[in-house]
What does this fold into?
Amino acid sequence: MDMPYAAGVQLSGLLTLGSGLRYDLGDRFAGPSNPFRPGGFDAPMYKNVDLRLRKDFPAARGARLAVTADLFNAFNWWSYSYNNDGTISGPVNDPRRFQIGAELGF
It folds into this structure.
């Protein structure tokens, strides 16, 4: 989307949402010490927002220049994977990252 009053700067974004997975808990063969419960744990939902600003500059001598700034996982939301006992085994997404790029066309 073109941002009014921002000298031709364009804003775009991507929102990714995913429902939480159902994990089985316990061990099928452990007996009463660790009983098996299918679908016994609902993981929190996955969510992520990526944002991009882009500015196109006027052509000069047939060359075009554009500058972009990307912000990945803008709100630094964490999503995790889980073990079969409901404990966190690790993150499944990257932390917040910022990236600047340029595009030159001729």
